[in-house]
Amino acid sequence: MDNKKSPLLSIVIPTKNRQYTCLYVIETCLLIKNNDIEIIVQDCSDSNILQKQITNKFENDSRILYQFDGTKPSMTDNWNKGYENSSGKYIIGIGDDDGILPEIYEIANWADRHSFEVVGHTEPYNYLWPDYPIKHYQGSLIARNFNSSIQYIDDLKARVKLRSKYADMGYAIDLPMVYHRLISR
């Protein structure tokens, strides 16, 4: 049995053949100056070259846990394996072309102190990489209006029930999800 203490925060990054963006994502995660995190890189690329690139760029930072799966899992299976390989009290999943701010650790700490199971957001900002398929939006930062207010939701079971009733329209019900959100284990 492993007696290692689980970290407060697991950041899961599933990736496939996007080494150049994934390295940047890892770099943003490492801006968190706390060892109480783990960064799970769940790679199902055509080769495991990313492992060497991670070692070369970040040396042996113990917060990075690289997992390679050469069986060519589906995108969903690769994401799920990343979550299964995580051990943090709070989990957040981000794409291999995303970034994260160091304040996410303080948000996880705040959620833990207040016993919140989920912390979400309204996606006020979205960056589109220079290789985005629509030329007009390439390299763009899109900002939406937001007011930084906090909304407490205590009727999750009712929302889940409603989502199952209206399955194809569930996005309007604001169910928590692990992509870009903190979810407690």
Word description of this protein:
With 185 residues, the chain is an alpha/beta fold. It has a domain at 9-121 and 176-184: Spore Coat Polysaccharide Biosynthesis Protein SpsA, Chain A (Alpha-Beta Complex), CATH 3.90.550. Helix content is 28%, strand content 19%. A six-stranded mixed sheet has the order 3-2-1-4-8-5, with helices on both faces. Helix 2 links the parallel strand 2 (37-43) and strand 3 (64-68). The chain starts with 8 loop residues before the first strand and ends with a strand. Mean pLDDT is 84; it is low at 168-173.
The global form is globular
Give the strand order of the largest sheet, numbering strands 1, 2, ... along the chain.
3-2-1-4-8-5
Helical fraction: 25-40%
Would you report the number of β strands? 8
Largest sheet: 6 strands, mixed
Brief overview, please?
The protein has 185 residues and is of the alpha/beta class. It has helices at residues 19-29, 49-58, 75-84, 103-113, 156-165; strands at residues 9-15, 37-43, 64-68, 90-93, 118-119, 125-128, 140-143, 182-184.
Strand and helix map with partners:
Elements: E1 9-15, H1 19-29, E2 37-43, H2 49-58, E3 64-68, H3 75-84, E4 90-93, H4 103-113, E5 118-119, E6 125-128, E7 140-143, H5 156-165, E8 182-184
Parallel strand pairs: 1-2, 1-4, 2-3
Antiparallel strand pairs: 4-8, 5-8, 6-7
Structural descriptors:
185 residues; alpha/beta; Spore Coat Polysaccharide Biosynthesis Protein SpsA, Chain A; 6-stranded mixed β-sheet; globular
